[in-house]
Each structure stands twice: as C-alpha cells, then as structure tokens.
Design goal:
Layout: E1 2-14, E2 27-39, H1 50-65, E3 68-69, H2 79-92, E4 99-108, E5 111-116
C-alpha cells in the first residue's frame, strides 16, 4: 500500500460560536493542510500523481477557503469540524481509484487536528 501526501497553506478567519474564551472572537490563522491518500496500484511506477492530488485539494478546499471567513462555510469551524468538512469534500472528489486516508490541519505550528481512515 502506498500513501501519497500533499500539503498547502492558506489564510482564513473564523470564530468559534460555542467556545468561551479568546477563540469565540473573530481572528485569523495561517492554516497548514495535509492530505494523504492511499493506493495499491502502480502505473508506470507512480501510485498517484502529486500534481493531480494538489489540483484536487486546490479546487475543493484551497480555492473555497483561502482568505475567507470560514463561518460562511460551516457553523462552527473548529479544527476538528474543518477536518470533517475536508474529508466529506475530498471523499466526493475523483481520486482515480485511490482512497482518502488522512486529513490533518494545523491552526498554529504546534496545534493540529487529524481525521484518519479507521
């Protein structure tokens, strides 16, 4: 089994309406997103083209969220809910026979949430 990963960063703002503390107020982050797919097939020595995976992530997530207010796309954009949103969007995208394996998003360099195929 091969695991193919791409990563990107984007800037976005959000607030957490169900949280009591600083994060309930509007604020921004430079998010780091990592998406991993799994594939068992090799075609010409390649399990999945990195550039194709980057295009899917750009189209489905980056173009939607970069420099946006995430609350316009989901009610409570916590890192965990963002992982679920990304998982749902990418699960519906054409991944050419590969399966989504892991989504990881960092709000800060030291704080992240991960959703992984169980």
């Amino acid at each position: 089994m091969f695991f193919i990963t791409t990563e990107c960063t984007f800037d976005a703002a959000h607030y957490l309406p169900f949280y009591q503390g600083k994060c309930e107020n509007l604020h921004g982050h430079t998010y780091r997103l990592q998406v991993t797919i799994q594939s068992s097939e090799l075609k010409d020595g390649i399990a999945y083209d990195f550039s194709e995976l980057k295009k899917v992530v750009k189209r489905e997530i980056f173009d939607l969220w970069d420099h946006q207010l995430l609350n316009d796309h989901m009610e409570n954009p916590s890192a965990e809910n963002m992982c679920m949103f990304i998982w749902d969007k990418l699960s519906q995208a054409e991944l050419l026979g590969s399966k989504l394996y892991e989504v990881k998003i960092w709000e800060t360099p030291t704080s992240s949430a991960t959703l992984k195929r169980g």
